[in-house]
Design a protein that fits this description.
Blueprint lengths: L4 E2 L2 E2 H17 L7 E8 L2 E6 L11 E3 L4 E8 L8 E4 L4 E4 L9 E7 L4 E5 L8 E6 L4 H6 L4 H27 L10
Parallel strand pairs: 3-6, 5-11
Antiparallel strand pairs: 1-2, 3-4, 6-9, 7-8, 7-10, 10-11
Length: 186
């Protein structure tokens, strides 16, 4: 057995596998990492179906992380015309599906969440079929668009404390002394 071979796996095979895995990780998320929301569309409201966090809720809040890939699969529950539209704060459409009227038909909207996303609605029934989007931390875009993280503030405070503490100690020594003063003999 050569020095490079361990069991049935060679170092070269191991390194090739690791390099390929690194390229997949660097290129973005795989389809297996796409999170899916399932909704039912009817005039009264969007009906949450899956995951369990939105199941049974009308116009559920969709919790998204900027930079994460998502899939919304929605089913027409009442046979009236509906579509699914993602909107920004100003009401501009960012992503949308086609309007469909066939009861039981489904459509899928796949997108990567961005910090602009604020709500979703059906453009035919925008006052009743409307829900909010809640953005949470995570992803490079979130860091770039949401300012300084809490961890950064804590780190900065620790650096400032580390820089100031010797100065405070020196000040205390000057004010109170060291207690090693020689008493004049008399």
């Amino acid at each position: 057995m050569s020095e490079q071979q361990t069991g049935s796996t060679t170092r070269r095979a191991f390194l090739t596998t690791m390099a390929a895995g690194s390229l997949v990780a660097a290129s973005g998320r795989t389809d297996a990492q796409t999170e899916t929301f399932r909704l039912g569309g009817e005039v009264q409201a969007w009906q949450g179906q899956k995951p369990s966090s939105i199941a049974g809720k009308s116009n559920p809040t969709l919790e998204l992380k900027p930079g994460q890939k998502y899939r919304v699969v929605w089913e027409n529950l009442d046979g009236l015309p509906h579509n699914f539209v993602l909107l920004d704060d100003s009401g501009n459409a960012l992503e949308s599906s086609d309007i469909m009227s066939q009861k039981g038909a489904t459509q899928t909207v796949t997108f990567t969440a961005t910090s602009e996303m604020a709500k979703y609605h059906c453009e035919v029934h925008p006052t009743t079929m409307v829900g909010t989007i809640q953005l949470s931390g995570g992803g490079q875009e979130a860091d770039a668009n949401r300012g300084i993280s809490t961890d950064s503030y804590i780190f900065a405070a620790a650096i400032v404390l580390a820089a100031i503490s010797p100065l405070l100690f020196a000040f205390l020594l000057m004010v109170f002394g060291t207690g090693d003063r020689v008493r004049p003999s008399g």
